[in-house]
């Protein structure tokens, strides 16, 4: 079962870009090197770089103008070598949460209609391991992510799965110690069980209702952090 990486390549690249801005003492409105130049600077592929740029644009560090270039947007409120300012991380997580509600919510509905016996068994095994890790006081982020990915696959829609995969680095921010707060895992634990129970017996409405309860719980934690 795949484990969550502590830092994905796009996340590492985003940090390197922030370091570059700080080292070069760039100011708001200054232009960054081109995409091609940065792929060589950081030794990464274009897809990883573009995902890092999308992330930095989402949290207002840069602005990307097609055909013109990439510009520094905000330097005054960031410590580029440190963690992203909490308020901006909260805003980013809430924006991605909206995307999760739309895309993953649909995946939950479809999974409840289409899940196969084999996929049901896989998710059941996943939940058993989730319970074991939680009872042992061990970190559950990787099994949590595996559970959600299992639902996406059970939805049986390759295009929907592909769209979700295209924002994987942003999506996985929820599973890489978001806000440094473990409550996002602890407080949503029960909803994984209730949502799975509804999916397993092919009840889309109930499954979606439990999913929305989970999203409401996450949103409340982020907003009150």
TrEMBL record:
Gene3D superfamilies named in the record: GntR ligand-binding domain-like, Winged helix-like DNA-binding domain superfamily/Winged helix DNA-binding domain
Q: What is this protein called?
A: FCD domain-containing protein
Q: Which CDD domains match?
A: WHTH_GntR (cd07377)
Alphabetically sorted, this entry's keywords are:
DNA-binding, Transcription, Transcription regulation
Q: State the organism's lineage.
A: Bacteria, Bacillati, Bacillota, Bacilli, Bacillales
This protein's species is Paenibacillus glycinis
Listed SUPFAM superfamilies: GntR ligand-binding domain-like, Winged helix' DNA-binding domain
Listed Pfam families: FCD, GntR
Keyword match DNA-binding: yes
